[in-house]
């Protein structure tokens, strides 16, 4: 049976058709929501141990990139998957509309300082990919420019990987109907109102343009060193399970060890 990472991987360079991927499907898991949540809890507990090992080991780094359409569930994923990890070793960076200062630089300038340090996990809530997505859909730069950025992104991520950072990228794939319901809930539910932005409606009108931009960007930048995964995300519990499974699989593969023991310490007595 394929692993979750194999199942949801975006094949490098191959045409990707998001319309062919059902955001409600739950391949690789035949249990119900409760069973899914129980399995995610177990995986999260393992993630917690692996994160502690990453931190203690202090040589490797993990970068997790999260991208999605509005209301795609990036915040919820971070909350659910990383709820047990030690906050000391994990940092989240949210990339919003760039400031004037950020715009005065190249598009990677604002991202690089948020790359993880040794022993850390960094989670990017949106990322440098906005510069080939929103920038393309809104014509913020011309086509020659955003197209060239695919190469720069691949080179940047390849450099991170070569220097010891494991890079994993997740596109949380929701349906247009699901987005409607979630945006409507932001209007109707007073507790969610703070998330509402009238911009969401303008962006929703450009749904097809965004899907096309995602399809092309993901196919062009999914590499062995920095793979993309398309996560069916209409069901939150399955989305969390997939991300948790893939991160556990990734960290297990690093074969992390505790730092070597100091032989002089064995047998010491604290008085
Ligand atoms: P949610 O998914 O809950 O709606 P969000 O990530 O959209 O959360 P917001 O504060 O609503 O958070 O929006 C951030 C906005 O910043 C997005 O519309 C995004 O496209 C925009 N943005 C991020 N990076 C860039 C960029 N490089 N250029 C232009 N716009 C950007
Ligand atoms: Mg938004």
Written account of the structure:
The chain is an alpha/beta fold and 271 residues long. The protein has one domain: P-loop containing nucleotide triphosphate hydrolases (Rossmann fold, 3-Layer(aba) Sandwich), CATH 3.40.50. The protein contains 10 helices and 5 strands. The chain has helices spanning 4-8, 33-57, 74-81, 100-103, 134-137, 143-162, 176-188, 199-205, 207-221, 236-253, and strands at 61-68, 90-94, 121-125, 165-173, 228-232. It has a 5-stranded parallel β-sheet with strand order 2-3-1-4-5, sandwiched between helices. Strand 2 (90-94), helix 4 (100-103) and strand 3 form a beta-alpha-beta unit. Bound molecules: adenosine-5'-triphosphate (ATP) and magnesium ion. Magnesium ion binds at residues 70, 197, 200.
Which terms would index this structure?
binds magnesium ion, 5-stranded parallel beta sheet, 271 residues, binds adenosine-5'-triphosphate, Rossmann fold, 12% strand, alpha/beta
SSE order and pairing:
Layout: H1 4-8, H2 33-57, E1 61-68, H3 74-81, E2 90-94, H4 100-103, E3 121-125, H5 134-137, H6 143-162, E4 165-173, H7 176-188, H8 199-205, H9 207-221, E5 228-232, H10 236-253
The structure holds adenosine-5'-triphosphate (ATP) and magnesium ion (MG).
């Amino acid at each position: 049976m394929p692993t979750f990472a194999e199942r949801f991987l975006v094949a490098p360079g191959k045409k990707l058709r998001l319309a062919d991927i059902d955001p409600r499907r739950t391949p690789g898991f035949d249990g119900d929501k409760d069973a899914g949540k129980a399995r995610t809890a177990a995986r999260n507990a393992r993630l917690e141990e692996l994160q502690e090992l990453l931190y203690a080991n202090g040589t490797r780094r993990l970068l997790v990139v999260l991208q999605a359409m509005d209301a795609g569930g990036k915040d919820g994923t971070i909350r659910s998957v990383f709820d047990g990890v030690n906050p000391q070793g994990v940092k989240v960076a949210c990339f919003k509309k760039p400031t004037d200062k950020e715009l005065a630089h190249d598009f990677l300038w604002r991202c690089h300082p948020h790359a993880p340090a040794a022993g850390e996990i960094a989670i990017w809530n949106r990322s440098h990919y906005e510069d080939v997505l929103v920038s393309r859909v809104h014509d913020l730069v011309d086509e020659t420019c955003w197209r060239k950025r695919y190469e720069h992104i691949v080179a940047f991520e390849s450099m991170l990987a070569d220097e010891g950072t494991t890079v994993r990228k997740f596109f949380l794939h929701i349906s247009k109907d699901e987005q409607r319901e979630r945006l409507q809930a932001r209007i109707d539910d007073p507790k969610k109102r703070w998330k509402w932005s009238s911009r969401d409606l303008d962006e929703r009108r450009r749904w097809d343009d965004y899907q096309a931009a995602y399809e092309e960007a993901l196919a062009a930048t999914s590499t062995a060193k920095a793979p993309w995964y398309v996560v069916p995300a209409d069901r939150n519990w399955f989305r969390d399970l997939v991300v948790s499974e893939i991160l556990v699989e990734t960290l297990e593969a690093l074969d992390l060890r505790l730092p070597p023991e100091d032989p002089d310490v064995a047998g010491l007595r604290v008085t």
